[in-house]
Amino acid sequence: MHTLFKRGLAALALSTLVSLPAMASNPGISSPDTMILGDSIFALSGDIHENLEADLDENIDTYARSGCQLTGGNILCSRLYSVENQYARADKSGIRTVIFNGGGNDIQLNSCRPSLSACMPLLNELEDRIATLVQKMRNDGIEDIIFLGYYNAVGSAEDLQDINNYSMNYKAAAYPGMGVKFVDVRADFAGRESIYITSDGIHPTAAGSRVLSNRILQALD
Q1: Which of 96, 99, 206, 216 falls between 20 and 30 A from 47, CA-CA?
Q2: How far apart are the first and last CA of the chain?
Q3: If residue 144 lies in a helix (H) or strand (E), which one and from where to where?
Q4: pLDDT by residue (tens digit) across 169-194?
Q5: Which helix (H) or strand (E) element contains residue 180?
């Protein structure tokens, strides 16, 4: 989202410096069997990671970084830390579950927005890449794969709702056949945006992160 991207540049740049991947953080607990990959929905505050570790009473590796795209790079997040490369570079020893998102920044930073028709080639490419990434996870013995969907953003990001709804509807229909648990959170946030989304119009508040954590926990059951 070019407008949103400019408005959130300073905050995201700072978060990129301070939100480096957090590995096993609870000493005395067994080695992690779960990892998180993705963008600033996970990485900006770190609340989802912390909530899940506390709720599950186990360590969870996270490689998520603010500003990162599913593929490629930008001034906030090098290509080295794209979601694809987060997984490629991750220590997968003993990992059985992957929780991830991706694609939001690819769309936000693309000139095709806000036209759904103009963004269709990009959306198709993203789905092809996600399918390839999921297959790599399967080949590596990952048993449980969870994709955290994007809620509809607000403010200057409202013009992306048609694109986001198309993308989320596609995932809801296609991902079960890929063996991926898709967590659709749009209904959870609809009408509660002032509580669950920060003033930048995109990132979850602590309360919003709690909702996202709870939905992930449901998918883990």
Answers
A1: 96
A2: 34
A3: strand 144-148
A4: 999 999 999 999 999 999 999 999 99
A5: strand 180-183
